[in-house]
Amino acid sequence: MFYYFPDNYMWSSAFNLALMAGGSLGEMNRWLSPLREGEPDGEAWGKAWAGMAEQQEAQAAEDLATGLRRSAGLRYLRASVYHASGERQIPPGPEKSASYRASLDAFEKAIELAPLNVERIEVDSPDGVLPGYLIPARTAEPAPVVIFYGGFDVTKEILYGFVEEEFVRRGISCLVMDSPGVGEPLRLRGVPSRPDYEVPTGAVIDYLETRADVDASRIGVMGISLGGYYAPRSAAFEPRIKACAAWGGIWDWGATWEKRWATRSKTVSVPWFQLPWVMGTDTMEAGLERVRQWTLVDVLPKLTQPLLIVHGENDRQVAVEDAHKAFEAAGSADKTLRIFTVAEGGAEHCQTDEPDPARQLIADWFGRRFGTLPERG
């Protein structure tokens, strides 16, 4: 992995994730280089990312004043990534809330000005309204759709940056979602995650079935990082899902967290506050107890749809052995395990070190399962 911050996995991982979502290396280096020396300073981290985002917003306003709408929109898009990247490391409180709302505001301006091929949608669910962005396929006929879930700390705005129009180019719509324990539900309404993710997924599918531009017979689900639990769990109990991809294999996430906490692992993506916050508990101990429910050990044998698991050989957040266990346990007749190696690149967690081959692989896989790409040639 590219360690922009020497010996600091968490911050370097965040740096790579921002690049993966569309950040600019030069802009990021200009604001973050002073943080590379000395002890990590959380306050300096937040100020650097906020300054980076605010500079782009100021330059976007200048572009807009001269009629350069698309240039302004793309600056706002990067500003949204920068606000979100800083926010991920900030504990719950006023600073985090302000940073998150700034990310939302910048993304909305990017939609309007760039403009982005995006429609904000809202789904009624047992957990309240779940917001998302539909990236619609440019087809005259109803198109297949893939629901895309984040994981432990990635919002729908970042998910958009991960895929943009790769599914659209293959004749597939993509719905990037904020769901329980993620994004707006967690940050604005305090809705924690839940182990039975087929419940919110069922509500999302109910919504999709109302749309004339969606082919409800070809609905897929994918998830990145902890989304590698959410997506397979949903598919195992929701027969309306026809294909499933885990961008990061999860086996027993509770066991993973027990090991992390026992060793005080330095290869985590965000500070320790994240677990009790996402779990909806007051203490780390209660969070560790609750997260034991996040296991696919008894779930994957029930999954029978086509399944793709993508993992990195050198994943230091979730062991590669977990991806192998998940693959072996899955009940799918059509299942594929793709391990990216150190030699070829993409060996880190969710291929943040070299993401494009994985992104293309996943979109192609869905294209073939849904008949929008030929099987060969």
Describe this structure in words.
The chain is α/β, with parallel strands linked by helices and 377 residues long. It contains 14 helices and eight strands. It has helices at 9-20, 25-32, 42-65, 69-87, 94-113, 156-163, 183-189, 198-208, 227-237, 253-263, 274-279, 284-290, 320-329, 356-369, and strands at 119-123, 130-135, 143-149, 173-177, 214-224, 241-247, 307-312, 335-340. Helix 6 (156-163) links the parallel strand 3 and strand 4 (173-177). It is globular and about 50 Å long. The mean pLDDT is 97.
Kindly summarize this structure in a few lines:
With 377 residues, the chain is α/β, with parallel strands linked by helices.
Record field, number of beta strands: 8
Termini distance?
34 Å
For the biggest sheet, the summary is: 8 strands, mixed
The parts where pLDDT drops under 50 for at least 5 residues are none
The rounded Rg comes to 20 Å
Write down the CATH class of the largest domain: Alpha Beta
The helix-and-strand class reads alpha/beta
Strand content: 5-15%
What is the correct CATH architecture of the largest domain?
A: 3-Layer(aba) Sandwich
The CATH homology group name of the largest domain: Alpha/Beta hydrolase fold, catalytic domain
What value does the average pLDDT take? 97
The SSE string, one letter per element, is HHHHHEEEHEHHEHEHHHEHEH
Total domains, how many? 2
CATH topology of the largest domain: Rossmann fold
Strand order of the largest sheet: 1-2-4-3-5-6-7-8
Overall morphology: globular
Helix content: 40-55%
**How many helices in DSSP terms?**
14
